[in-house]
Amino acid sequence: MSDPVEKARASWAAQHKDLPAWVLGLAEQCKASSQSKVAKQLGVSAAMVSNIIAAKYPGDMKRAEDLYRGTFERETIRCPALGDLTLDRCRHWRARSKRLVNANARNVTMYRACNACPVNRDPEGEA
């Protein structure tokens, strides 16, 4: 099955799960270009993209969704320090805010802002 859209539909249906709209969008992006190119745009591995489409990804699906929505849908969120950010950039700064690296003023600003931001309050402790 080489069509990623059909693979996504069949795989998610086989697991008796509803196919999320963003996963369908991810599969459509892969069909339009290639899985490797899509993975590169997201900053993840092609295997991760494949596993998401195949409904076998064991990792953080919310992170994957944020990367997709920020990269391809340009969905934004209001950042108290930087204004409007795409979801993937917000997630980038949230991940960096776990540890203070005072190499420059932006890192310190974002460390403080992200740690005070309500978006960074994940109930499972993962940003």
Provide tags for this entry.
single chain; about 130 residues; mainly alpha; two-stranded antiparallel sheet; about 5% strand
Characterize the structure shown.
By secondary structure, the protein is mainly α. It has helices at residues 4-14, 21-32, 35-42, 46-53, 61-72, 87-96, 105-116, and strands at 76-79, 83-86. A two-stranded antiparallel ribbon has the order 1-2. The longest helix has 12 residues, at 21-32. The protein is elongated and about 50 Å long. The mean pLDDT is 90.
How large is the share of residues in beta strands? 5-15%
Largest sheet: 2 strands, antiparallel
Number of strands: 2
Task: Please bin the fraction of helical residues.
Answer: 55-70%
Q: What is the topology, as strand order, of the major beta sheet?
A: 1-2
How many angstroms does the end-to-end distance come to? Answer: 35 Å
User: Nearest-angstrom radius of gyration?
Assistant: 16 Å
The general outline is elongated
Task: Please mark out the parts with pLDDT under 50 across 5 or more consecutive residues, or reply none.
Answer: none
Please provide the ordered H/E string of secondary-structure elements.
HHHHHEEHH
> Averaged pLDDT, please?
90
Structural class: mainly alpha
Number of helices: 7
Give a brief outline of the structure.
This protein has seven helices and two strands; from the N terminus they run H-H-H-H-H-E-E-H-H. It has a two-stranded antiparallel ribbon.
